[in-house]
């Protein structure tokens, strides 16, 4: 039997754990997995071989706000960071992905410039609920909805009645930004992080998550809680799951690694919504991840122009809320996961396998026969210091500047082809109906 590529490593991370193996690739997929010594091939030795990460929460912002980020820069950053599949959020681009025509516009904008595979979420807004089934049929992987102001006027939130209408409209995954507006006060103009944090309390997430779970219970719909920040919501989610509610939840590297206590005055690169909370909350989120109450970790890569972060005044109320971390999520998470005694197999489950399963890309995010040959050679012991200027995000604004992180991506294969951010774009545009 002949193969296009054979990669051998003593640390191949499979769904069953780490093992020495030879990964044999044909026609873009993993065709066989043999013993490490059984076949010849490129030998990675003690370097780990991971499935490429699957990041289901990325705001690419093109077209319309391409000066914030774009398909070329975002996917180069992804590739450099060991992420081989992203799913683009429907908002912050113009038009937002809320109609079949808008999806066409988005796919046209992305065509020919993606360095990793790219799929698309649709958006559910008050005036497109009758069109959700058509948009779903056109290939989006599910729908995102807000219960609160999204930050951009063209993507308004759903009220509770419209949320139920949306959930009943089509059987797919509904991603919910869960913060309850009645619990949120407008942040005072201030350079103190504590003032911003106090304006978006944990109760806002608790109430919103409870409402979403009630709506899922009533409709039988499948819901996914986005960027969970408040650990107080975890018992609600765990109980709902025991009751048979179809619910999954994600959190992000920044909630698991950064804490409110360490955010300096005026450091608006740390601003995101919901906010980064205190140290005890961070530890409780880790416990939720380990227990399975939280399914996965994705970036919520949400950049903007540096000016919109208002570094001139350091005002947390005025700054855009969003953290750009597509290129850094893997080492940020590995650094903290390893410190807490976790292994690469857990990291891969949280950042590749589970997100792929939730979005429905079951042939990706895992090293097994039949899966996409999206592979990453990862040195788990090497370290580096984050230099913003070396990031491939459109704008080098990051809360991780100057941090020393462990874990370096040494090589990446997309559908079995060796790829680099400088090389030609080989990413595919993914459609739910082709999966
Ligand atoms: Zn987001």
Number of strands: 17
Q: Which regions are unreliable across 5 or more consecutive residues at pLDDT < 50?
A: none
**What is the molecular shape?**
globular
What summary fits the major beta sheet? 8 strands, mixed
CATH architecture of the largest domain: Alpha-Beta Barrel
Number of domains: 2
- Quickly count the helices: 11
From the N-terminal CA to the C-terminal CA, the straight-line distance is: 27 Å
User: Could you say which small molecules are bound to this protein?
Assistant: zinc ion
Structural class: alpha/beta
**How would you classify the quaternary structure?**
single chain
Secondary-structure element sequence? EEEEEEHEHEEHEHEHHEHEHHEHHEEE
**Mean pLDDT score, rounded?**
97
- Percent of residues in β-strands: 15-25%
Estimate the helix proportion, in percent. 25-40%
The CATH class of the largest domain: Alpha Beta
What's the CATH superfamily of the largest domain, by name?
A: Metal-dependent hydrolases
Report Rg.
21 Å
CATH topology of the largest domain: TIM Barrel
How would you describe the overall organization of this protein?
Homotetramer. InterPro entries: Allantoinase, Amidohydro-rel, DHOase/Allantoinase_Hydrolase, Metal-dep_hydrolase_composite, Metal_Hydrolase. The structure is a single chain. The protein is α/β, with parallel strands linked by helices. Helix 2 links the parallel strand 7 (83-88) and strand 8 (117-120). It contains 11 helices and 17 strands. The chain starts with a strand and ends in a 16-residue tail after the last strand. Strands 1, 2, 3, 4, 5, 15, 16 and 17 form an 8-stranded mixed beta sheet that branches. The structure holds zinc ion. The site of zinc ion has 5 residues, from loops.
């Amino acid at each position: 039997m002949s193969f296009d590529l054979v990669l051998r490593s003593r640390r191949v991370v499979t769904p069953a754990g780490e093992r020495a193996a030879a990964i044999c690739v044909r026609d873009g997929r993993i065709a066989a997995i043999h013993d490490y010594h059984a076949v010849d091939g490129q030998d990675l030795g003690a370097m780990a071989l991971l499935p490429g990460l699957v990041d289901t929460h990325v705001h690419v912002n093109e077209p319309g706000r391409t000066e914030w980020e774009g398909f070329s820069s975002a996917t180069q950053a992804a590739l450099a960071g060991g992420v081989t599949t992203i799913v683009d959020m429907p908002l912050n681009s113009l038009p937002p992905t809320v109609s079949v025509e808008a999806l066409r516009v988005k796919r046209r904008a992305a065509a020919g410039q993606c360095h990793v595979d790219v799929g698309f979420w649709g958006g559910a807004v008050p005036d497109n609920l009758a069109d959700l089934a058509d948009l779903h049929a056109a290939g989006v992987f599910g729908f995102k909805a807000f219960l609160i102001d999204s930050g951009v006027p063209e993507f308004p939130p759903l009220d509770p009645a419209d949320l139920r209408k949306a959930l009943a409209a089509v059987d797919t995954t509904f991603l919910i930004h869960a913060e309850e507006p009645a619990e949120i006060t407008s942040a005072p103009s201030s350079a103190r992080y504590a003032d911003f944090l106090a304006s978006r309390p944990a109760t806002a997430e608790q109430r919103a998550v409870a409402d979403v779970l009630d709506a899922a219970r009533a409709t039988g719909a499948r819901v996914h809680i986005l960027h969970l920040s408040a650990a107080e919501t975890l018992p609600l989610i765990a109980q709902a799951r025991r009751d048979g509610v179809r619910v999954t939840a994600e959190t992000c590297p920044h909630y698991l690694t950064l804490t409110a206590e360490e955010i300096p005055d005026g450091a608006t690169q740390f601003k995101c919504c919901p906010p980064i909370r205190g140290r005890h909350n961070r530890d409780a989120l880790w416990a939720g991840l380990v227990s399975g109450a939280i399914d996965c970790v994705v970036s919520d890569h949400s950049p903007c122009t540096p000016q919109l972060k208002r570094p001139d005044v350091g005002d947390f109320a005025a700054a855009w809320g969003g953290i750009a971390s597509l290129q850094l999520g893997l080492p940020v998470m590995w650094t903290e996961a390893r410190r807490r005694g976790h292994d690469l197999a857990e990291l891969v489950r949280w950042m590749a396998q589970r997100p792929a399963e939730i979005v429905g890309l079951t042939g990706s995010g895992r090293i097994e026969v039949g899966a996409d040959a999206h592979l990453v050679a990862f040195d788990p012991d090497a370290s580096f210091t984050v230099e913003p200027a070396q990031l491939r995000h459109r704008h080098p604004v990051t809360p991780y500047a100057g941090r020393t992180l462990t874990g370096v991506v040494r090589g990446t294969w997309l559908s079995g082809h060796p790829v680099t951010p400088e090389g030609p774009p080989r990413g595919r545009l993914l459609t739910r109906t082709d999966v």
